[in-house]
Design brief:
51% helix, single chain, 93 residues, two-stranded antiparallel ribbon, DUF433, 4 helices, mainly alpha
């Protein structure tokens, strides 16, 4: 695991993420709070320091307006592309 603490940046996908990685603040928050995983488990699964997990969670709660905008952008993208998905009940053998 990396011993270097990562900063939270917005270089990729216009969403806050760990510097040098594609792991977003939103993803880490969802893993810990949405899926109920321990921060150490998230860190181990993604080869990051547990401090990076806490850093991402801190960023999430320190920037509620920004994170709300990120969530709204994700929801809008899902809705915009919903027509591209197939409902399993519509698939015929």
């Amino acid at each position: 695991m990396s011993q270097m603490a990562r900063r939270i940046v917005r270089e990729l996908h216009d969403e806050p993420h760990l510097e040098g990685r594609r792991i977003t603040v939103q993803f880490i928050k969802e893993q810990v709070e949405g899926r109920g995983l321990e921060p150490r488990t998230v860190a181990d699964r993604h080869d990051i320091d547990v401090a990076d997990v806490y850093r991402a969670l801190t960023y999430y709660y320190d920037n509620p307006e920004e994170m709300r905008a990120v969530e709204q952008d994700r929801e809008a993208a899902i809705e915009e592309h919903a027509h591209l998905t197939t409902d399993p009940e519509d698939v015929r053998n």
